[in-house]
Every structure is written in structure tokens, then in C-alpha cells.
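User: I'm writing a short report section on ligand binding and want a predicted complex to refer to. Could you take this sequence and zinc ion and write out the structure as C-alpha cells? A short remark afterwards would be nice.
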Amino acid sequence: MCDFIIYYYVRRNCRLPEAHAQFASRGGGSMKPCSSGPHKRFLYEPGECALCMGRML
Ligand SMILES: [Zn+2]
Ligand SMILES: [Zn+2]
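Assistant: Sure. The C-alpha cells for the complex follow:
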């Protein structure tokens, strides 16, 4: 596996981290991901996801 990685910053209670990420940033040195993933990492932060909260109606 390469060192291509994308960090997703999400709220701790989020149920759809990839879709609701505050923002994503690329890490690692590789320019392109190889064929064997995953190349995603979720960084959970305290707080509530506004998008998820809106769907709880
Ligand atoms: Zn890879
Ligand atoms: Zn969410």
C-alpha cells in the first residue's frame, strides 16, 4: 500500500462521515492512490454534526 491518504474531519456523532466531512485534506507523499485501498482516514472532533442533527426530525 502507498502512502496516499485523505483525511476527513468529521464530528464525533456523524453517521455519514464521508459525505458530511467539514473538509478533507490530502496527506502522504504519493500523488495518486494505488489500487489497494483504503486511502481514507477519519479524524473525529468533538461536537455535533449539523447535517445529521437536521435529519433526525
Ligand atoms: Zn495505496
Ligand atoms: Zn453527519
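A remark for your report: The chain has one domain: 5-47. Residues 50-54 form the longest helix (5 residues).
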